[in-house]
Design goal:
Radius of gyration: 23 Å
Helix content: 25-40%
Shape: globular
Strand content: 5-15%
Number of strands: 14
Strand order of the largest sheet: 7-8-12-11-10-9-13-14
Structural class: alpha/beta
Oligomer: single chain
Length: 561
């Protein structure tokens, strides 16, 4: 049954008796040594509401594993709260935490010879971090999402954490009172769970369901609902059966599965971060995937779901309307989903979706019919041009005018840009440039939710562009372009921009360019000097040394030769 732990501990007999003695001290009895040993990678912490409920789910997973005949061993892994660290120096550690999570899960599972792993995560980087490790190790695995937060309510409207960021911009622009600002802040996050729109956490949970690495419907359940705990226990039992059937992650994480994932991201209006994370997971799984694949799939998949940040509804509404399985069935019957892709249950996607109707329920408008989509093509656009020869990512849902040409307003950090917005220094028609925030230059590729929310709050969302070599929160919307590669720190063209340069963002033409001659750019490049690293010790310094371009997923093991 086991390929890892028991083959080392049991079959080698007497010489392994000290190992057995150690395990007896943590609860093993004689009969437990013949069972598959399954790690529970538990991302529990009280750092963030996303993860505060995970320990209860870990206990239900333990229960399910024992009932199914396995022996669970629980270990912890870390989290960084993106929402809390947003706009601060601490946000530089967010993307870094993805790699730390992946490394920690790989280290424990391989170090202890686990037969399988059930990973439980909530905040944004928990999910791709766990899946990178799962793809590397290729031992039977399942991912359990901690669940979405329920919406806050204030003055008759649903709130999410993005509401609080936008309220800051509205207050600074004089559009709301201090009492309104405090009312939003006090009511935006009512309890446990990850940010409630189709932001990064809910996007990645939807991705894993689409890839067959999580159970159907589990990606959109609310953290505080009993069905989430029940689904966790069922996930544990499914994993034990997968161990028995020797179903391994790389049988699921195939090229077809990645194409299915991209299709679902487009259909639900998911986060730009999905691009970065899917590239990284594909690298770990050794599946060829490039930015051009997102272009191809975008062209044939419409946006079907009217979800925040640019839409009207939150993820709990989406769940009630049919969730990811309903969207997947619509994609399947319209020939843009690979139904023969395998899932952790041992069944194919098509088999899992067999009983789901081809069209969404008529008594809701969260999920639109195929014949009447929100947008005829996907909302994530890959831009290229002399400002992004490797590529950049734009999210154009909710954008009234997907192109702009205007003067560059150049900032060397997120903080200086945010202050300029709050001080009223940004005008309609400007194109904001935030640079040296990339994977190496930041380091850590901070998300720019504070500046983008301030722009929306100031009423400039439809008239200002923004480009950066950093990232955007899943809660961001507007004419914003991130992941600009090559980044400024390695001499990308974004490093050469000067205040007032004419910049064009054209999502329809998939173009990002500065309107300067090649000769002018060559002269500026000859005069450019790389700035000294911002950190010379510790995890950020190590990360900056190792991390690859965002066009490769910003992974830390791509250039080790």
């Amino acid at each position: 049954m086991s390929d890892n732990f028991r083959s080392q501990v049991i079959t080698q007999g007497v010489q392994r008796s000290p190992n057995r003695a150690m395990l007896r001290a943590v609860g093993f009895g004689d009969e437990d040594f013949s069972k598959p040993i399954v790690g529970i990678a538990n991302g529990y912490s009280t750092i963030t509401p996303c993860n505060v409920g995970l320990n209860d789910l870990a206990k239900r997973a333990e229960q399910g594993l024992k009932q199914a005949g396995a022996m669970p061993q629980v270990f912890g892994t870390i989290t960084i709260s993106d929402g809390i660290s947003m706009g601060t120096e601490g946000m530089k550690y967010s993307l870094v935490s993805r790699e730390v999570i992946a490394d920690s899960i790989e280290t424990v599972c391989n170090g202890q010879g686990m037969d399988g792993v059930l990973a439980i995560g909530g905040c944004d980087k928990n999910m791709p971090g766990a899946m990178i490790a799962i793809a590397r190790m290729n031992i039977p695995a399942i991912f359990v999402y901690g669940g979405t937060i329920k919406p806050g309510r204030y003055n008759g409207r649903d709130l999410t954490i993005v509401s609080a960021f936008e309220a800051v911009g509205q207050y600074s622009a004089g559009n709301i009172s201090e009492a309104e600002l405090l009312g939003v802040e006090r009511n935006a996050c009512p309890g446990a769970g990850s940010c409630g729109g189709m932001y990064t956490a809910n996007t990645m949970s939807s991705v894993f369901e689409a890839m067959g690495m999580s159970l159907m419907y589990s990606s959109t359940m609310a953290a505080e609902d009993e069905e989430k705990a029940d689904s966790t226990e069922e996930s544990a039992k499914v994993l034990v059966e997968a161990i028995r059937q020797r179903i391994r992650p790389r049988q699921l994480l195939t090229r077809k599965a990645f194409e299915n994932a991209i299709a679902v991201v487009m259909a639900v209006g998911g986060s730009t971060n999905a691009v970065l994370h899917l590239l990284a997971i594909a690298h770990a799984a050794e599946v060829p995937l490039t930015l051009d694949d997102f272009v191809t799939i975008r062209d044939r998949v419409p946006v079907l779901c009217d979800l925040k940040p640019s839409g009207r509804y939150v993820t709990t509404d989406f769940h009630r309307a049919g969730g990811v399985p309903q969207v997947m069935k619509m994609l399947l019957v319209n020939s843009v989903l690979h139904g023969d892709a395998l899932t952790i249950t041992g069944k194919t996607i098509a088999e899992q979706l067999a009983d789901i109707p081809a069209e969404p329920p008529r008594d809701q408008d969260v999920i639109r019919p195929w014949s009447n989509p929100l947008y005829p093509q996907g909302h994530l656009v890959i831009l290229k041009g002399n400002l992004a020869t490797e590529g950049a990512v734009a999210k154009i849902s909710g954008v009234k005018k997907p192109s702009i040409t205007g003067p560059a307003r150049v900032f060397e950090s997120e903080e200086t840009c945010l202050q300029a917005i709050l001080d009223g220094q940004i005008k309609a028609g400007d194109v904001i440039v935030i640079r040296y925030e990339g994977p190496k230059g930041g380091p850590g590729m901070r998300e720019m939710l504070a500046p983008t929310s301030a722009i929306i709050g100031a009423g400039l969302g439809d008239s200002v562009g923004l480009i950066t070599d950093g990232r955007f929160s899943g809660g961001t919307y507007g004419l914003v372009v991130g992941h600009v590669a090559p980044e400024a720190a390695v001499g990308g063209t974004i490093a050469l921009l000067q205040e007032g340069d004419s910049i064009t963002i054209d999502a329809n033409a998939r173009l990002l360019q500065v309107n300067l001659s090649d000769a002018e750019l060559a002269q500026r490049r000859a005069n450019w000097q790389a700035p000294p690293p911002r950190y010379t010790r510790g995890v950020l310094a190590k990360y900056a040394k190792l991390v690859s371009s965002s066009s490769q997923g910003a992974v830390t093991d791509a250039n080790l030769d």
